[in-house]
Amino acid sequence: MPLALPTTYTYSVPQQFQSKLRPGCRVEVVLGKNKRYAGIVKSTTTNAPAYTTKDILNILDDEPMLYPEQLKLWNWISQYYMCSEGEVMAAALPAHFKLSSETILLFNEEFGEDFTDLDNDEYLIAEALLIKKQLNLTEVQQLLDITHVYPVIKRLIDKQVCIVWEALSERYKSKMENFVLLNPQYDTDEAMGELLNNWSKAPKQMELLLAYLHLIKTTGEVTQPELLKKSGASAAQLKGLTEKNILIIEKRSVDRIKALPKTFEINFELSPAQHIALQQVQRCFKEKQVCLLHGVTSSGKTQLYIKLIEEYYKHGKQVLYLLPEIALTAQIIRRLQLHFGGNIAIYHSKFNNNERVELWNKIKTGEIRIVLGARSALFLPFKDLGLIVVDEEHDSSFKQQDPAPRYHARDAAIFYASLFNANVLLGSATPSLESYFNAQKNKYGLVELNERFGGIHLPSIEIVDTRKVAQKGKVMISPQLKEAIEKTVEHGRQVILFQNRRGYSPYLICGTCGYLPQCKNCDVTLTLHKYSNKLHCHYCGTTYPKLVDCPACGTVNWLEKNFGTEKIEEMIEDEFPKLRVARMDVDSIRGKNAHDNLIKLFEQHKLDLLVGTQMVVKGLDFEKVSLVGILDADGLLSFADFRVNERGFQLMEQVSGRAGRKDEQGKVIIQAANITHPVLQFVQQHDYKKMYDFEIENRKQFFYPPFSRIIHISLKHKNKETVDEAATKLGNALHRDLNNFVVGPAAPVVNRIRNQYIMELLIKLPLDSKKIKDYKNIIRNHFNLLLTEQKFKSLIMVADVDAV
Length: 804
What we know:
Elements: E1 26-31, E2 35-40, E3 58-59, H1 68-80, H2 85-92, E4 102-107, H3 120-132, E5 134-136, H4 137-144, H5 150-158, E6 162-167, E7 175-182, H6 189-197, H7 203-219, E8 222-223, H8 224-231, H9 235-243, E9 247-254, H10 272-287, E10 290-295, H11 301-314, E11 318-322, H12 330-340, E12 344-347, H13 353-364, E13 370-373, E14 385-391, H14 409-420, E15 423-428, H15 433-440, E16 445-449, E17 460-465, H16 479-490, E18 494-498, E19 507-510, E20 527-529, E21 534-536, E22 543-545, E23 558-561, H17 565-575, E24 581-584, H18 594-603, E25 609-612, E26 625-630, H19 633-636, H20 644-656, E27 667-672, H21 678-684, H22 688-701, E28 708-717, H23 720-738, E29 742-746, E30 752-753, E31 756-766, H24 769-787, E32 796-801
Parallel strand pairs: 10-15, 10-16, 11-13, 11-14, 12-13, 14-15, 17-27, 18-25, 18-26, 24-25, 26-27
Antiparallel strand pairs: 1-2, 1-3, 4-5, 4-6, 7-8, 7-9, 19-23, 20-21, 21-22, 28-31, 28-32, 29-31, 30-31
Helix pairs in contact: 1-2, 1-14, 7-8, 7-9, 10-11, 20-21, 23-24
């Protein structure tokens, strides 16, 4: 069931259902006293459990909703990532498939109409029930204008005004559309000619009929809204033609997502380097299930993917193309639709629940064979999967953070593909250390693509020492970068400036007493946002009015420290008033198509300069960008995290890769105070392998992945003493059972979020899958033991396996 239950439950199957029931079907069952759910049958058995079983009430599907491979994937994710199968089900299924009963109140006719003994709230509901005879919970909430309605309902039940009934209803509804058809008796030219020649009255109806005849010839079928729009007629005039039996209205079920024509046009040739790489990938797949394609930025990896997808498609196989964040990759979507048309489906969070159900069904039947999606597309019901492409495989967005299941789509994709004997292609210009390590160890195949498409050189990189810039406060735009921006724009080219902090000023400080405005719910400083003129908490989202005087000393001596994308945008507009500037971050990109619209403006050279956060890094391809500025490299390399060097290199190399993708070599200016940092030297030389060798030694020395598997445990509670005591108890127990594999407990840098205090433990386990399984069971048991104590009942414990 789609709940975080500790185990799966066994129900008995009544005789009438036994021939129809199969694993993967949804069934209606009762959980607890009378709550009904749509559960998924995992397996059937003839062995009864030790407890008394309840009967299945109904089978909701004629055919299984899931294939056996999906059930195996769910089971693997729940085991590996230490969560329940119910949590995997909740993440995997479209909302309309996850049915739970809705409480319906029925009026008790025997009570009569005397409501004098009822209070105001009870009277309101009783009156409504008398009129409507039944109400659902939502309607009761709307009537009372409160969310907590259970006490009122309980009093009404106790007084026998109403009774409660639990109903389980299918929420997906087909979209119906009115289609207009011509009466068959007018199908011939003679009959139609006679009709039109003898037309005497109603000229508007004549216009409507002519508009219909034109549309049917050009489009093949005509919908009512389309016809009324084309003819400018009213529904009454159309009704006149249907009453005369000239036109017929027919209701039909239609797709919510407008499909493109099913064209198939691969109209490009690979370069010699790409062609060699493609042959190497194909050879790899004959020997190994997984291949890593390490191709420098702008080497044309997407074209390689398109050729591979074409090959698998022609062999009748399904293909899944995974991207880290679908919203940030509108360009790739457009490119793939250009080649595959309506043969490719896009699956992401922007679709509503009905649209998701329709896509699910089309993929399940094999009607759609190519799917482009974010990590959740992994859960779609593939029938005959042949290839999974994981683009930008290093990206941390492939790892689900909250809620459970906290799975990594790349690793889950490799397991899922193994169930179909399918291939997986991992692609990146800056692979994750784990993937490159597996390729070096010969577990994965490795193909390198070291030259940019069209023979363009990788951008030249200049590092500017901000300590040598004579400027008060932190340097935003150095003189070198300012000069480079001027020259670039003069030559009709474009600029991208990258700063990984949004907002105006990441923190304010009182210049007199050093007071820092902090969030009431989290232990973090607040960020000033100029567009709202408020202080924002980036952890819980709370906003506060901008402070005028200091609450600690009463002065108005505020200093703005550091800078975010808003401040940079403002400074650029001041320094370069003629430049067309835009900002791309979470605050500026609002609405379904805002991101795509901004990219199109930049593509069409209607903007000269783009300021942005990580959003400007991911998968964007702009022909005219010659200059990239990384404004604060120190900020990227100063996190307390063992992956900081790897992440810093990946971000800087990826954003550098946006420069000089066509026509000429690009330039990158990196501003840093610590210019001797080894990662900056690797970025300057575009040398991934040197970075890998440097990092892998450190990882080996300190027993971090890929030499170990890590499980990050966090404990949260609104009471600090409770969480400290629980962490100490759990830490002692784990130290005792897992020896030297446990680090902590300790408080994280931000140790309170949303009024919950946090403590953490890190467990580093050796690479032995059998032992890891045993260790996970030990951790689970200690979790359960801790929760048996009354004072820890409301403690939140989360185990994040392979945390990123």
